Amino acid sequence: MLLPALPEFELAFNAFARGTLLATPSGFSAIEDLAPGDLVLTREFGPQPLTWIGSLTHVPNAPVWRQELARLVRFLPDALGVDRPHSNLLLGPGARLWQSTSEGGVFVPAHRFLDGETALEISPTTPVDLFHVMTKRHATLSAAHLGVESYHPGLQLRDRMNAANLSYF
Q1: Rounded to two decimals, what is the model's pTM?
Q2: Domain ranges in the chain?
Q3: What is the architecture, at CATH level 2, of domain 7-166?
Q4: If pLDDT is split at 50, 70 and 90, which confidence band does 14 have?
């Protein structure tokens, strides 16, 4: 289904690149092979069904309304510790990683981990399919052994969108 190129959709559908491996009860599955109803493993709640999957195609050099929407981040294996991630992981501008703190933890945008060596900003030369997924409850998913946030629309989304566009969520 084609949707209008609105900022709300561009922000929502852009966390995981095609090929990202998400943890499921039966092992890792590529994000593009998952569908609503499939179970994914969450840090907080164990196995949870996907309620929504959105995707878009990131087109190199296409005009963007916010420059950070053009950023992709590649994490090399072991970039954030042993087996974290366990393989190359390409994330879109909407990806936020779980970072433990003394008070629990917070989600941090993937681009904040850029170091020029093991976490690299990528400018692809060909289109890249990006996805995001939602569970009934906001949760931390395992993408190649890194904790990554499930999509959360925020409370203000309903105030910014009309009923027709909101129905796509």
Answers
A1: 0.85
A2: 7-166
A3: Beta Complex (2.170)
A4: confident
What are the backbone dihedrals phi and psi of residue 40, each rounded to the nearest 5 degrees, phi first?
-125, 155
The pair phi, psi for residue 110, each rounded to 5°, is: -55, -35
Asked whether 13 and 6 are in contact (CB, 8 A), the reply is no
Q: What is the pLDDT of residue 145?
A: 96
H/E/C letters for each residue in the chain? CCCCCCHHHHHHCCCEECCCEEEECCEEEEHHHCCCCCEEEECCCEEEEEEEEEEEEECCCCCCCCHHHHCEEEECCCCCCCCCCCCCEEECCCCEEEEEECCEEEEEEHHHHCCCCCEEEECCCCCEEEEEEEECCCCEEEECCEEEECCCCCCCHHHHCCHHHHCCC
Mean pLDDT of 64-84: 85
43 within 8 A of 137, measured Cβ to Cβ: no
Q: Which residue(s) pair with 55 in the sheet?
A: 131
pLDDT of 90 above 90 = yes
**Length of the chain as a residue count:** 169
Q: Which of 24, 52, 65 is nearest to 133 (CA)?
A: 52
Going by C-alpha positions, the residue among 63, 97, 60 that lies closest to residue 80 is 97
